[in-house]
Amino acid sequence: MVRVGTHALSAASSATLWDRLRQHRGHTGGRDPGSGNHRASVFRRHVGAALIHRDGQPPGLLASWLDRHGPHPGWAHQETALEMAVSRHIGAMPVLWLTVPDPATRAAVEKNSIALTSRLADGQDQPSPGWLGHHAIPGQIRQSGLWNVEHVTQSCRPGFLATLHQLIQLHQ
Q: What DSSP element (H or E) covers 2?
């Protein structure tokens, strides 16, 4: 497991899991098939920055990529190519999901799943040597073994595994 995420953490939210996954994966059709929008997905932003770092791309591309307002002059073409690389990388990842009935429980499952698997908290598993996250800009990603920065240092709540087991049993 290299990423934990959720959607619709408020009762008023109309977001769906599949819409959120599409934001992360990128476009499969439309005017820019294979592209995406890293300014709408922090996951895409982290993956793209790690690709830039790993591949020794110019610092100007990283500065442009990390600017949440839009590409810097002269970097739009390189950002488009990078969006496609990010889409390929994320698109190759398998997805496992769990139906969680309400926003408060969803938030607790996300937080505790991150804590359970983060090497900065309760997690014990080393990321594979070839994991792109070793090149991530935030130290929390490199050190935790997850593409997450929130909750990576928190401990898992006592009883969480029992709650997780119950949720899994509901959907078998």
A: none
